[in-house]
Every structure is written in C-alpha cells, then in structure tokens.
Amino acid sequence: MERVTARLDCGILQGLLCINKGVPGADAFEHVLMSALKSYSVIWDLVHDAPPRLLDQLVRAWEPRWLLPGETIVADEEPDADFVFVLVHGSCVVLLEDREIENVGQGSVQGAAQLLALNGWTRTVQVAPTCNGEAMIQVMKREKLLDMLDGHPLPKARLRALEQSLQEGKEADWRILKNIPAFGSCAFQPFLARLHKDADIRLFCAGDMVAFAGDDSAAMMVVLAGTVRCEQPQTLFFVELHRGEWCYQDNILGNTPTFGHDAVAVTNVLVLVLYRHAMQNAMVAYPETRKVVIANETWRKKTGCPDFGVLPVFNKLPASLLSDVLEEARPVYYRPSSLLYSSGERVEDNSMLFVLRGELQLAIMGIEVRRIGAGGYVGLHHFMGLECPEPNVTIRSTQACDCLLLQQSTMQKALDDELMEDDMLPYTASQRVLAGGEILDAFGFPVGDGSAKNMPDCVEQSEVFRACSKSFVAQVAEIVEDLAFWPGEKLYSQYEEGDMMYFIRAGRVRLEVLGRRDPEIVEAGITLGDMAVLDQVPHYVETAYAETHVWVRALHKKLLRRSLSSFPEEERCMLGQCSLRRCMAGKRKDGDRKDGKAKKAKLSVEAAKAFFEEHGIKVAIPEGKDVDITPLAGFQFDGFAKRLIKYCQSKFEKPTPIQACTWPLIMQRSDVCGIAKTGSGKTLAFAMPYLSMSRLGQLDVFEQPCASARFVAMAPTRELAMQIAEVCSELVKALTAGDEGLYPVQCIYGGVPKRDQREAISGTGVDMAICTPGRLQDLVEEETLDLSSVFTSQTFDEAHFSDFLLPNSS
Asked: Total structural domains in the chain?
C-alpha cells in the first residue's frame, strides 16, 4: 500500500481503517477514539505522517475495557501501570489523596507521563458513581507501543527525543520545592518530601492549556521540565516559567479563590501540581510547619475567621483546653461541589467539623434540609460521645470550604485528667442532660424534681403517629436529623413558616406565646411544630427555647411529604390525632378560593407589637390556652366569605382595632371578651365570623322557617338591639345577594306585643336572634324560640350590664 506522507486528518484515518478487514467502520466508539488520538499530540505527533499500516496497528493496539460505576481504573502509585487510556463512553472522577480534584468526560486521555515512563501514577481514576450504566475505556500499554514502533525508525526516534526532553523532570525530587516562599522556614526535607509524594505530576504537550484563568482549583504549579507561559487575559502581558519556577501560590494558600491568569505549555512540559488538601495533610503529619504556613494565609484575617471557642459546647471551658483543641485540630479543604460524607458516614475519628468559610449543604434522600455557613458545625453528638444513630445526611460543599476537624481525643484527654474535673463541669453537664441524666442548677442541686429522660424512640412513640402504621413510622424514623440546642437557644419563632417538626429526645423546651403570661415547659417525648408542618396552622404558633440542653430529632416538611406520597392514607391518620380546637385554628377551606391558596392579611410579629402599642391594646390569654392573637392588617382572611370581604372593602378602608384583634380569635372558636368605645365596629366584629363560618359550611345550616336560632346576641336596651339587628341584616343581604330568608334576622325586645314576634319566627324563621334579656327569656320559656342549637355564637353586648338585667340568672 502506498506510503502516505501528508498529515492525515481524522476522516482520512477512518477511511484507511475501514479498508482493513475486522475493523468496524463508522462506529460511535471508534469516532471517539479517533478524535481523541488526533487531538492528543503526544501520540499523534509520533505517527501523523506514518504509513497506513502503522496507523492500522496503532488502532489495533488499543484494548477495550468495560467498567461499572464506582470501579477503579487505576490507583495512585499502582505498580507496573505504564499505560495510557482513552475514556470512550461514560464519565470518571480523578482523586488525589482520597479527595476529588477533577471530573473527566468522553474523549479524555489519561496517562501520557506513564506511557513514556516518566513517572508513576500520581492520581486515582474511578468511573463516576453517578455514571449512567457501564463506562468504556480503550487502553494501550507502553510495551505495545514500543513493539508497534519497531521497524519504523522515524516515529521511534521522535518518541526517544520526547522522553529525553523531559528527562530532567523525571529526575526532580523534593528539593525543587525548597525555594517556594509559601513554605518559608518550614522547608525541611520530611515535609517537602511528603508534599512531593502527594502531588500530581502531569504531562502537557506544546500548545496545551495547562490552566485557565477563573479556575477555582486550590492548587499551585511547579515546572519540572520544559517551558510554561503565564498569560494575563485580554492583555499582551506574559511571563515564561522554566524548571523550578512556580505560579498560583496564593491559590494553594486560599488567599485567592480562582486562578488569575492562563498557563500555556510552550514546549512539552512536566508540571507538578500541589493541591491545598494535600498540603494540609502534610501539615498534620508535621505539626511544626503549621504556624508558618497559616501565617501566610492572609484570608484568615481579612474575612474575620470565626472562632470555634464561641460554640455553646465549649462555653466556660478553660482557655488552655481551647488552645489544645485548636492546636490538635486538623485543617481540611473542600473544593466546590465536593462530597464530604455520604449517608451513613460519620465524621472521621468522631471529630466535629467546624466551618471556617464557605457553605455546606445537608440533604436527606436527595432533599436539602438545611445549609451551614461559616461558624456552623456537624458531628456534635458523636464528638460528645453520645449514643446516636449513624447520620443519614449527605453533606456536600456548595462553595469552596475551609474547615477544622476538632478532635474528640483532645476532649477525652481533658476528661481523663483529674486536675481538670472542675473545669470540665459545664461540658460534663451537657453530656449528662443530653444522655438523659439529672438536670442540675449552678450549685449542683436538682432543678424541679431533677428528673430527665432520654427517649431514643421519641419519633416512633410520638402522638402524631399514634394511628399510623408501623411500616410508615419506621420509614419516618430513618429520615430525621439529630440536633442539639443549649439553654437559651431558639429552636424556632412564632409566625415563622413551619418547615421542621421536632421530636424531643432529651431535655426540656420552653414555649412562649405572644400575649400569654406564663410559658409552658415540655419534656422528652413531646412533638413540636407538627401543626405547622401538617398545614393545620399557617405558621408556628409559639416560640420554642431550649430550657436545658436539648436533643431533638428534626423532620423536614419536604421529607414528610415524600414519605406520604408512598403512604397516602397515613396523612388522614395523622390529622385525626390533632385536636378539633387546633385543627380549626388553621383549617383550610376551598369555598372562596379559586387557586386553592389561603388568603391571609396578618401582621408580622414586629408590626403586631407596634399595633398593640399604638392603639393601647392589652391582650390577656388564660393559662393553658393556645391561640394565635396576631391582628389583621386588612379584610382578607382565611375563612371569611368572599362576598363579606367585598362588602367590607367597599364600605371601610380597613378594620377597626377591635375587629382586627377579635376576628382571628373568633375564627379559632375561642371565647373573647372585648372592650372598645361606642361606634368602634363591635357588631361587625362578632357578626362577620359567624356568617362566614355558616356560609363556608363550618356550621350546619337549618332549612327555614325554623324556630331554632344558631346565633344569639343580647343587648341591654331595645335601641341597641335594633342597631345590632340592622347591621346583621345588611351583612346577610351582602352574603346572600339580597336573599335574607337564608339567614333570617329577628330582633326580639320588650315593650311591644309578643304576637308579632311569634308570627315572625314561625313565618320566616330565625337564624340570628338579636334580643333583650327579658323578652328572650319569655319566648324561650313559652317554647316559641329554641336555643338548643346555639353552640358556638353567643354574644353579650354591653356585657357589664348583665348582672343588673338578670340578677337571678347564672
């Protein structure tokens, strides 16, 4: 076959290969391999003008391999691994010192330095665990390459010349790092040798991009052989680096988040890449280097690095102990989108991970439950030696994160030291209470009866799930997160959106409600926030503080909804466990909602306080009552009939103070005693909730005419009764579009013949009875009027006159 001397492009190469028997034609995998070979100049430059016979041999030299997700292709420092491979299908992750440093996709070529025997493998390459199906690679060993080039002197000479040009890089050792300023006075042999051993050595061909400006890799690069040009983007400025010179020093120290310039290979080059996490491993192995390196990390001073000593778990502990904790803590770095821990994995060595900067995402079953920023931590329970289930959260970094691994062994040494027994009392007290031990005051005496308990099955035994199946409850127990709170810390605030349900496993929680004088104390076994999570109320109805050290198991609303999607009947069981009073406080109705969304116009907490102060309103709630006293900002409210809302909006600008305060309470079916001036809208305050509940089906509607009133309002005088009846009639007209017969209003008072009132009741019926006390008593006694159906709406206007008007009544 005729020798081809011109440079072949990919299409010609494929055409030549198709001539030979046994070689597939336009196969998808072959296309990927051809494209990778043509773009990979290490191999292509050897054979680009070779005869077709050699090109055919080149393709046949590659061996296909299929690998499963998570399977390792090659491991760091693996012996006798002098091969190169092309990723033909799938995706891979590159690991260095058990940390992900790179993701590679289809067409990627790995192992050029190893193929040329310049260096062993310095990285571990695995098929990505998330790879969809098997991955395919094509492998060529150095032995096959040499055999293939025998009899072809020109390609063989090129290979030899390439290897010789990079030979000085192969001979480089730890001494090439001695002059790097970042390591300063700690540049001694064992430390630098560890850095060199844990570095990644890469081969780049002339023209290859070594690094890109804007890359967020926390690494620096040292040239081992060849020349690299550093180019400032969008300028003509550049600097050339030769053997022993470096760039991106601020990136490995964390002072600069991204590379500030491009790096391009001018010749074939060997580059040693030092990563931040590998440098930190060397610092841990040689603690004497730590202060020197950290002194060069100027970001710690510029960003206001948080102090772990302010965490509640370290409160009141001696400064000497905190100094030891810091000294023995292990610095760790995670690049963006790194997987820190999978579900079921605890922090190594039962340490506590403290975030210095960056952000972590915590997810359960793929659903994000919360995020942790600077000053946050994970792994507290195991750090304190508490018996805690294995964590079920998956933790990833959303940003570049610098953290500290606070060692449990440091705390254990202090606990074992008898001389520090008194100093460790705050810490041991938190351990004791969280484990269910006695609750003691500052003098060591029991608080209350001193009893405490730890309920590992607080989820399974919760009243919320009493009527649910065991299989459902068992599933829920697997998707909760264990959290700890110290005395005074807030679990949640009143009026916050209810995203979390809290099952108290140990300790006591104080519940405070705006307007309620005395707080409520609850203990282990109680569930908090269930009504808000189950959408029975629009938000948390109290503020929860840790009264003691508290261990809670938190269930996110999204996770509960996901569980209910597999057990739809369980939601009815849970709602059935809710008391009628609390259910009605937040019950949703669809009667007057086109889009199914509740209409609310409540004030915020701050606005509510300002409203009460502005109008001189004082609210008192009897002990044991649990109601939402937030006033309304307008007429829109979940449960009000739409026609009544429009009626009010057409006649009034906004609710009066007595209306804004009493409407939410009455709609929760709470007894209300309200005091306001004449003309302040008290009639509308008590009449509008009743008619709305009737209209929306929350009360049974009787067929008229009927002598059984469902609403009774008593007034001390005839004039006042007539005024109330007039307002009620106007509301009925607005509600029924003029059909007053649906909710007949009867004004019953003395001083006129009873006959007319009897005929009105028997003729048109009565739904709302507006009465003076004497005539009401007469009609009830003669059985003209039936009050047996008055369950929810009884109003006493000018109630301070009641004893005078009915002195013998109870």
From this structure: 5
136 with 252, same domain: the answer is no
Residue 396 lies in a domain: yes
pLDDT for the residue 186? 79
3 state SS of 414: helix
d(CA 359, CA 7): 51
Contacts of 548 (CB under 8 A, 6+ apart): 433, 439, 447, 452, 487, 507, 508
Cβ neighbours around 16 below 10 Å, total? 19
Q: Indicate if 410 and 480 belong to the same structural domain.
A: no
pTM to 2 decimals?
A: 0.68
The strand pair at 228-231 and 377-378 is best described as: unpaired
Does 138 lie in the same domain as 16? yes
3-state helix/strand/coil string of 30-77 = HHHHHHHHHHCHHHHHHHCCCCHHHHHHHHHCCEEEEECCCCEEECCC
Tokens (6 digits) for 583: 């259910």
Q: Which of 165, 197, 223 is the last residue of a domain?
A: 165
Cβ(116)–Cβ(109) below 8 Å? no
Predicted pLDDT at 576 = 58
Number of neighbouring beta carbons within 10 Å of residue 69: 16
Residue 39 and residue 112 in one domain:
yes
Check if the beta carbon of residue 91 is closer than 8 Å to that of residue 73: no
pLDDT by residue (tens digit) across 61-116?
889 999 999 999 999 999 889 999 999 999 999 999 999 999 999 889 999 899 99
- Residue 536: which domain range? 463-578
Are residues 276 and 182 located together in one domain of the fold? yes
Write the DSSP string, 150-217.
Answer: TT-HHHHHHHHHHHHHTHHHHT--GGGGTT-GGGGGG--HHHHHHHHHTSEEEEE-TT-EEE-TT---
Is the distance from CB of 344 to CB of 395 less than 8 angstroms? no
> 359 and 311 in one domain?
yes
Question: 490 phi and psi, to 5 degrees?
Answer: -95, 130
User: Both 775 and 723 in a single domain?
Assistant: yes
Confidence of residue 600 (pLDDT cuts 50, 70, 90): very low
Assess whether 477 and 562 both reside in one domain.
yes
Sign of dihedral through CA atoms 761, 765, 771, 773? positive
Q: Which residues of 763-794 are buried (b: 16+ CB within 10 A; e: fewer)?
A: ebbbbbbbbbbebbeebbeeebbeeebeeebe
- Candidates 709, 666, 667, 683; CA nearest to 798 is 683
